[in-house]
Design goal:
The protein is α+β, with helices and mostly antiparallel strands. It is built from 11 helices and 5 strands. A 3-stranded antiparallel sheet has the order 3-5-4. It has a two-stranded antiparallel sheet with strand order 1-2.
Length: 203
């Protein structure tokens, strides 16, 4: 099959998928296409859609590929769909940022950073599927461990956790309760600049 035909087929698969379609899932369908060629074709498609300046584009997000409308068209799309964007309170945003950068994390550590009870906020984030339970920590009391979900990556347009802004960027914008996210020493900065491998594996 020619590259043009393969690209059209890949586009069809991505188009009908309700969630970002991973390279691995595409490979399961296109068994005769090796991984290297599939990655090449996907990269070419990404470049072609970016150059075309159509009303929608192809993006790599949440560990997969998805067609999305362009952000600059959001105002008109909202008028057509008459939908309200996902709204999060300041406490919810603070808690979500803490979970994103410190995951895997337990509720007690979230509350230590924020200085207030965060049980209700965590429940809201769980209900909205932005945060998920990763398991229980192997310490007395077996507290629940939290981490971000694939939906978090999809909603915020992130390819993976390594796409999060650095903590230096966050520190410039963060409210006082998030300042502890920022490392106090250079060594800690290196450790927390990006989420841990364990956190990435949890997604």
């Amino acid at each position: 099959m020619e590259d043009a035909q393969l690209k059209a087929l890949i586009e069809s698969l991505i188009f009908v998928s309700e969630t970002p379609l991973s390279l691995e899932r595409i490979k399961e369908v296109l068994r005769d296409l090796n991984r290297r060629d599939l990655r090449r074709l996907l990269c070419e498609l990404l470049e072609e859609y970016e150059r075309s300046q159509r009303g929608f584009t192809l993006v790599e997000v949440a560990g997969g590929f998805q067609f999305r409308t362009r952000p600059e068209h959001a105002e008109w799309i909202k008028k057509l769909k008459k939908t309200k964007p996902l709204a999060l309170t300041q406490p919810a945003l603070e808690t979500l940022a803490i979970v994103a950068y410190r995951q895997p994390i337990v509720r007690a550590d979230v509350e230590r950073i924020r200085g207030v009870d965060s049980g209700g906020v965590l429940r809201t984030l769980l209900e909205r599927k932005l945060v998920k339970i990763l398991g229980k920590k192997d310490v007395p009391g077996r507290p629940i461990v939290y981490g971000t979900s694939k939906r978090f990556l999809e909603i915020f347009g992130l390819k993976d956790l390594s796409s999060l802004p650095t903590l230096k960027d966050i520190e410039r914008l963060a409210p006082p309760s998030l300042q502890e996210l920022g490392p106090a020493e250079e060594k800690e900065a290196a450790a927390h600049e990006r989420p841990s491998e364990a956190a990435e594996d949890s997604l």
